[in-house]
C-alpha cells in the first residue's frame, strides 16, 4: 500500500527550507575554512546550527513547527 504524502502549507515548507539553508551555509563555511574537519565536528556543528531553531515556531498558517535535535553518535 503506497503512502500518500501530507500536503504542508507553503509557509511551513519555506520555514523548514530557511532553517536548513542557514545550517547548510554555516557548515559549508566551516568546511571551506578548515577542509580537514572530522565528521564528528560537522555533526556537532549541524546540531549547533539547528539549535537556534529548536523552539516551536508558529507560521502564518497557524501551523507549529518543532524541530527536535538529538545526537546519537559518538563512542
Could you explain how this protein is built, in words?
This protein has 75 residues and is mostly helical. The chain has one domain (11-65). Helices cover 49% and strands 5% of the residues. The protein has a two-stranded antiparallel sheet. The protein is elongated, with a radius of gyration of 15 Å. The mean pLDDT is 90.
Instruction: State the low-pLDDT regions, or none.
Output: none
Strand order of the largest sheet: 1-2
Please give the domain count.
1
Q: Tell me the radius of gyration.
A: 15 Å
Query: Could you tell me the strand content as a percent range?
Result: 5-15%
User: What is the succession of H and E elements?
Assistant: HHEE
How many E-type strands?
Answer: 2
Oligomer: single chain
Shape: elongated
Helical segment count: 2
Key traits:
elongated; 2 strands; 75 residues; two-stranded antiparallel sheet; 2 helices; mainly alpha; 49% helix
Amino acid at each position: 500500500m503506497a503512502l500518500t504524502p501530507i500536503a504542508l502549507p507553503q509557509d511551513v515548507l519555506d520555514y523548514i527550507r530557511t532553517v536548513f539553508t542557514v545550517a547548510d551555509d554555516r557548515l559549508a563555511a566551516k568546511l571551506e575554512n578548515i577542509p580537514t574537519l572530522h565528521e564528528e565536528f560537522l555533526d556537532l556543528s549541524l546540531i549547533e546550527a539547528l539549535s537556534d531553531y529548536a523552539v516551536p515556531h508558529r507560521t502564518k498558517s497557524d501551523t507549529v513547527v518543532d524541530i527536535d535535535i538529538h545526537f546519537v553518535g559518538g563512542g
